Amino acid sequence: MGSVHVQPKERSASNGKRRDVHVAAGAGPRESGDKQTACARVLAVLSAFAATSGASLSLTDISRRAGLSLTTTHRLVGELTEWGALERHDRQYRIGIRVLELAASSTRGLELREIAMPYLMDLHAATKENVHLAVRAGLEIVYVERLHAPGGVEILSRIGGRWPLHATGTGLVLLAHAGYDVQEQVLSGPLQRFTSKTICDSRTLRQALAEVKRTRVAVTDGQITPGAVAIASPVHGADGEVVSAVGVVVPSNGFAPRGTERPPAGGWKQQTIVPAVVTTARRISRALGARH
Amino acid sequence: MGSVHVQPKERSASNGKRRDVHVAAGAGPRESGDKQTACARVLAVLSAFAATSGASLSLTDISRRAGLSLTTTHRLVGELTEWGALERHDRQYRIGIRVLELAASSTRGLELREIAMPYLMDLHAATKENVHLAVRAGLEIVYVERLHAPGGVEILSRIGGRWPLHATGTGLVLLAHAGYDVQEQVLSGPLQRFTSKTICDSRTLRQALAEVKRTRVAVTDGQITPGAVAIASPVHGADGEVVSAVGVVVPSNGFAPRGTERPPAGGWKQQTIVPAVVTTARRISRALGARH
Fold it and tell me: Any CB–CB contact under 8 A between B81 and chain A?
């Protein structure tokens, strides 16, 4: 079976757009008017929940978001609830605990996070700042772990949250170590602007990536949140490939050591935090079986 | 749509048993020999991965575990990979990062965990022991978070892992606060034995549940792992219902304060840890909006 290749298809269920495929109510499980495959319809129902964290949705909501008839939605929601992918609560549906169980068996997701956790907690305890663990999914990063610092910078990350590669510290690390194709796709595409400091031209981004690859650390200043500096470093897997990135977000004003007048460029705290981030990334790499 | 009720169906895709539904290869997407619904087939493919953590499976493995023909498996795996539920790596498939994103929007799963995390980390730092956050799923608990103590008791928990209600500290808490139906189902069914200390008769279990409800804390000694004492307390949601349980696992030999000769029944450490667990559970309840 090794010769089977999966052909990319049109991303019908996953592009987040609402489709208006409504078929006659009561037409049964195989409505001829609905051009989606059965699998795509199941995924469309699940996608309805991906848009909003912690969402409880009614059958009508799900039907509208998934672009499916109420009849089809009702049938699929029933089966998904029975399996545990959805849970019913007060006539509303939400993502079920079975999905967490499934996520726990994801090598790149909760399993990576389980191995990395003790080191992330030490980094969090030592820095008292927001700590991230991220992996690349296409042209974005996905946060696998986030340890929030109660007094730290207010940032927008959450587990499962996605951000573009070019604008985040962990994203720059993962992009710098991605294949040529991925880099060219990002460099040739439009680069979304979040603040006046976001790197939005491909020339500057190319230089930044070379620097990240050379120094093994990315430092970005206010590219998504003004006043927040992100410091990130690569995590290697057993085969030496970069599988993840560890990052810390600190306030850009930093903390000046006693007796000094003004912080150096990049601030005091950032400079002292870089070795802690790099060390943590190396420790996690070793725990994953990497040999430096 | 409020009047729609979801009827329980036969749990075909979720009971973990292998079914030998093999249909003629090349029969296309709607094989007449396969009696499962299309949705059940999709879920059977996902279930193939739920059994083993971090599993990478070949198409043949998935086909065998799901009880589906290779043709059907190939087609569904292609669609699931395209959507991101599965990822392909060296001719093997594994659970994709998209499932983690979906799990992140689970109110009872990663969202609860996100709110509880700062308090769990404090409990972990204060006790230096294994810390758990669990929810009930049917007659079992599912761990939503586990903070591992490097020098702590070796325990078998992992995020997404399931255990019977009667044998775990968090399980006793959740069972004590579950409805009559759930309690009767557990009390009338066979109670699995893990060690010589596991509560396996319904009379003792009934007494234990009453005690847990009265004291707001469960203390179990070596019921799953010999030498491990579990201490757990209920977490309430905004509507006052018990939504989760926090637990700590400590060695049953405990630590005797200096100058004392022998620990009291239950050990020194357990006694000092009970208030910390109860406090943490109350703090998380408040963070969830509960009013005590």
Answer: yes
Task: Judge: B107–A94 Cβ closer than 8 Å, yes or no.
Answer: yes
Q: Chain A closest CA to B54's CA: distance in Å?
A: 4
> pLDDT digits over A121-165, tens only?
999 988 888 899 999 988 999 998 888 876 666 666 677 788 999
Give per-residue pLDDT as tens, A26-82.
333 444 345 688 899 999 999 998 766 557 899 999 999 999 999 999 999 999 999
Listed residues A45, A66, A96: the one ending a domain: A96
Neighbours of B277 (CB within 10 A): 26
* Number of separate domains in chain B: 2
What does the alpha-carbon distance between residue A111 and residue B158 come to, in Å, rounded to a whole number?
9
- Sign of torsion, CA B152 B154 B155 B158? positive
The model's pLDDT over B87-110, given as tens digits with 9 standing for 90+, comes to 998 889 999 888 888 888 777 777
User: What is the per-residue pLDDT across B54-95, written as a single tens digit (0 to 9) for each?
Assistant: 578 999 999 999 999 999 999 999 999 999 999 998 889 999
CA distance B260 to chain A (A): 33
C-alpha–C-alpha distance, residues B184 and B191, integer Å: 12
A87 touches chain B (CB under 8 A): yes
Q: Which domain holds residue A231?
A: 105-287
Q: Which among A6, A95, A108 has the least Cβ separation from residue B106?
A: A95
CB pairs under 8 A between A and B: 240
**Token pair of B81 as six digits:** 């990979």
Write down the H helix ranges in B8-111. Answer: 38-50, 59-66, 70-83, 97-104
CATH number at residue A270: 3.30.450.40
Classify residue B292: in a domain, yes or no.
no
Considering only residues 170 to 189 of chain B, which have any Cβ-Cβ distance to chain A shorter than 8 Å?
none
Task: Check A54 against B111: CB less than 8 A apart.
Answer: yes
Name chain A contacts of B38, Cβ cutoff 8 Å.
Answer: 29, 38-39, 41-42
Q: Confirm whether the ipTM is greater than 0.85.
A: no
